[in-house]
Write a structure and sequence with these properties.
The chain is 35% helix and 15% strand. β3, α8 and β4 form a beta-alpha-beta unit.
Length: 454
């Protein structure tokens, strides 16, 4: 059978469209032409026509694109706030780049892909070991949706309708939770932090009641401060509510695991565990729960079993939760997972080992502390939360012009700290710095030198 496809030079490799297709798409969104569609992009940022007409050899094409790529500016990042610049060992790319994994997907016919299922099973086991929880799913889309799914789980299990969320939770996570619950009967209340950048137990005690399904707390929180999760947990358990802990998994190399302070659900963003920043995605979200909650857990779980000959095998288990099995009774509309990035984390953990992972966490803390001490000593800069424990992010208050600070840093190939002026909780004139193991002492000293001159 011969299929004729009309292709012109503007078409993409995998979605060829003819002029009629393009015209129909533009009309459906009320746009007259391609130029009008992209007019929001400044002209100086638009790509010029590629000079590849007439046919070129592979070597000529590679050289041409390398020359274009050389014009990109490589920035030294001192910004985090959700996506972080961490070192990714070559081992990660070597393994996940194998053909059997690169296009892999947790399959509907699980028994046909034992290798993929075993890799996901190992990932789940490592997440459980890291968080101190009983059961992990095969991952979710990202940290924000994992937090929202955790809240939905708590509502399903408890039969209550009140959710308390610390204002120290990443604002995008809070917005995602609100979006998920927009058409439900759930009531969301945001709890303000104290002046020290943490959530006080006394504040939580005064707000939590018998109708509270769950309390959502992030540690280290959005401002980098490590919360007193033991004390907050006791307040939550006193009202028979569920405790949803949002954690930076890398920080668990040195801080207490959620299972140790009796959290019911642990979620977070997995990008720090071997996934690239990639302009914000794709990443993956992890979720782990106590055994009593696993039946209500969203997404997929890979289980270990034996066949009729007694040999070990792997299956997708508890499938009744999923949309593709019993849609009207599904616990979630998530019916996939970020397998490749979850596999990257499996390789990442295996490569570092227990001692290496702990050393990695300690390096993040020590380098951030070094930068913190230097910056807060500069004229016009001071620590916002002076005596609080932090991981690799910290807040600095400044009397200088924040826009000018970041402009000067950018001119010197540095992606500067995040402006927290609109973040609330008294963060006006504040900057959120991030320092990971990637930053060298020389880079930190250069940052401090530039800040001092502004």
């Amino acid at each position: 059978m011969i299929i004729k496809i009309n292709i012109n030079r503007d078409d993409m490799d995998y979605t060829p469209q003819n002029q009629k297709d393009k015209r129909q798409m533009l009309e459906s969104i009320g746009v007259g032409n391609i130029d009008e569609l992209f007019k929001i992009i400044p002209n100086h940022l638009k790509a010029k026509d590629l000079n590849i007409s007439g046919g070129k050899t592979e070597q000529e094409l590679l050289n041409y694109f390398l020359n274009i790529a050389s014009k990109n500016k490589k920035l030294i990042s001192f910004r985090g706030a959700g996506i972080y610049d961490h070192f990714i060992p070559s081992l990660v790319g070597e393994i996940i780049g194998r053909s059997e994994f690169w296009t892999a997907y947790t399959p509907y016919q699980a028994e046909a892909s034992q290798g993929t299922l075993q890799a996901v099973f190992e990932y789940q086991s490592l997440i459980c070991a890291l968080t101190g929880m009983d059961t992990s799913n095969a991952s979710l889309y990202d940290g924000a949706t994992a937090a929202a799914e955790a809240v939905l789980l708590a509502l399903r299990v408890s039969g209550k309708n009140r959710i308390l969320i610390s204002s120290g939770v990443h604002p995008e996570y809070i917005q995602t939770v609100k979006t998920y619950l927009a058409n439900s009967k759930a009531k969301i209340e945001i709890i303000s932090l104290s002046d020290n950048g943490r959530l006080d137990k006394s504040t939580l005690d005064s707000l939590i009641d018998d109708n509270t399904a769950a309390v959502v707390i992030q540690s280290p929180n959005y401002f980098g401060v490590v919360e007193d999760m033991d004390a907050l947990s006791s307040a939550i358990k006193g009202k028979n509510s569920l405790f949803v802990a949002i954690v930076n998994p890398l920080s668990l190399g040195i801080f207490k695991a959620p299972g140790e302070y009796n959290a019911d659900i642990a979620v977070g963003e997995g990008q720090v565990l071997g996934a690239s920043m990639s302009a914000g995605g794709a990443t993956f979200g992890f979720m782990a729960v106590k055994k009593s909650l696993e039946w209500k857990m969203p997404g997929r779980i890979v289980g270990q079993t034996t066949d009729r000959d007694g040999k070990r095998g792997f299956v997708l288990t508890l499938q009744s939760r999923e949309q593709h099995i019993r849609r009207e009774k599904a616990t979630s509309n998530i019916c996939t997972n970020a397998s490749l990035n979850a596999l990257a984390t499996c390789v990442f953990f295996s490569g570092w080992g227990n001692a290496g992972f702990s050393n990695l966490a300690e390096t993040n803390i020590s380098k951030a502390r070094y930068a913190f001490t230097k910056i807060k000593s500069l004229d016009g800069f001071k620590a916002k939360f002076e005596n609080e424990t932090f991981f690799n992010e910290f807040v600095i208050e400044t009397s200088k012009n924040i826009k000018k600070i970041n402009k000067v840093l950018l001119r010197n190939n540095i992606l500067g700290p995040l402006d927290l002026s609109n973040a609330g909780d008294g963060s006006k004139n504040c900057l959120l710095f991030c320092v990971t193991e990637q930053r060298t002492e020389a880079e930190i000293d250069r940052l401090v030198e530039l800040l001092a001159k502004i």
